């Protein structure tokens, strides 16, 4: 028998049971922010050749295919927005509405409205008081959840209700569990007795939370569990007499997940961070840590967001470091107080002007070497601190500030850091005069200071006028610029050599207090683009042929009297063929009378995917390259009268949707030797695997081989590995050689848990080879780090420090 009820008379059992499922969603979203994933495990695979791959979303594909409560109906509507306008349809073997007030439903009762369905053996509903009572095999489903109970009763208007013997499951977050009783006090507050929660398969909980009572307040966004335990299998792992957690995206005070790790510099480490939600616009995190080899460390982070200003203060403090000091370092830190302070702030001043500050200071230059996360392998040579005022308009930008550095390399003296820039100022203008003509000017003013080195001020003015003519088939881009660079050196400039080092008793290379350099820079860039249809190996492609000519003229100016404050010779590559200067910084401007000839060809498939890109080019020099960086003999290197640069070739090849190769090669016709070579091959192994091979060579600097892979043994197990080997380079002091890094790990992934174990043995490249060791034969700066990580899907992880390392060392890792 079926009867149609008006929408306002949907039995409140459905409404009440929908609210009973509230804490499940709350717990699923509260115990740590987590990435969403579809229930079928679908995910986006990182494209081949990508340098940065997003973390994989949670993969629930390994969950049991039918791991749902037994009454789940996948055909039921998932559109909850239709509830208010939809009718309610009720079917039952028997309906008694004789008094026109109380409906008595019995025998396979089913009520449906939009995405909601309620089933029970019997149900009573009072239309006057809105009391309800559903008994026997109560089952409820909507777009977000499933719920089963033996008995549910309450009042619809008061939004109160009680359900017994509850089983629930969320359809979006996979959270599920049980409760002996669920009591709803009003629309926002609910309490559950003897409740559990997990994202594992129903009936197969590898882990779960159990609480004697769990209270949820949706108005405050907070849940409280009392006498709660976190269990792995049947073993209680953590007991908390009182545990508070958020039930939505609002922040709240509480413990974060601990981190466990070990490094050869600091021993075993335990971190137990505690989050403080102080106010909607500022918060703090306390991070006390214990290092077995060094003692206690207290870390803290304070974040704030006030009108017109936002910033972060991060402090790490060690009251007494009882760890040993590396004998090769320049400072003795044993038994001392140590700290690291980082402060960042951005404050709006007026209109487009902002004040930006970044202060980074440490008690000593060993701090990051001893307490840094050695698993990540990041190298920090120095800490930079700066403060500047920046602003800009439609065609201009400006900044004024200062920057200083602190040496963080414990194996070098403080003189290894760059010059302090106190102050610096930049003013850039780029104004389009017409649709094809632009005027611009890049201006820089800096005062350089460094103890034991020549100091001075430098202004660099760089106006230009450029034009752009062309169409999709051709382009011509002339550019005329003028560069003036002037200096005001310190009073004792006569006592320094080319590098600015104090040079007492010797003839100085600086003969003027106010040296300068002025010269024009003229370039003409032009190219053509041809295309045609072609076929290769039975596939149709569009092939392009793109010849390009680039002429550059810069007259020679003697720059031997100019200091080198922040300038170095850049590595030569394909894009240097079209650059106006081979030096970074303004202290050197190369002379040029050059013509670059280059050609590129591409193959594009029918979908527009670039399957092949090959480029080849060389610079032809019509005059010698006379501007060089100074050498150790206090003189500039001799002019190079080569007629041409190295030949440069690049090739990128998309072999298939699963394999990609890229290579670069430079060969010098002058020395008849290879200057640079690089080969990289990447392939996908299924959805979860990747393999990489790379060879890198640069004459006089490095020659390295590297292999990395993520190999899926099965649906659940993956092997992880990376290996880098270096050949010794002649002429380099204490060169890197042999295995410089070896990483091995294993990963287990299941329906609701991911385990990772990674061990990394490596040469600390940041400090290796920079100077001879103080003790002959003491050259082993190899370190070791190990990390174990557990990810409980839907709750968060114990650390999250392994992913950054694997994404850095294994191209394409997710």
Could you please describe the fold and organization of this structure?
The chain has 814 residues and is mainly β. Among the domains are: 2-50 and 68-200, Lipopolysaccharide (LPS) transport protein A like domain (lipopolysaccharide transport protein A fold, Sandwich), CATH 2.60.450.10; 253-449; 685-814, no CATH class. The protein has four helices and 46 strands. The chain has a 26-stranded antiparallel β-barrel. Strands 1, 2, 3, 4, 5, 6, 7, 8, 9, 10, 11, 12 and 13 form a 13-stranded antiparallel sheet that branches. A two-stranded antiparallel sheet has the order 33-34. Mean pLDDT is 81; it is low at 1-43 and 768-780.
Give the end-to-end Cα distance, rounded to a whole number of Å: 55 Å
Percent of residues in beta strands? over 45%
The count of β-strands is: 46
The largest β sheet comes out as: 26 strands, antiparallel, barrel
Rg (C-alpha, Å): 34 Å
Count of discrete alpha- or pi-helical segments spanning 4 or more residues = 4
What global shape is seen? elongated
Mean pLDDT: 81
Which regions contain 5 or more consecutive residues with pLDDT less than 50? 1-43, 768-780
Helix vs. strand class: mainly beta
Helix content: under 10%
Quick gist of this model?
With 814 residues, the protein is mostly beta strands. The protein is 4% helix and 53% strand.
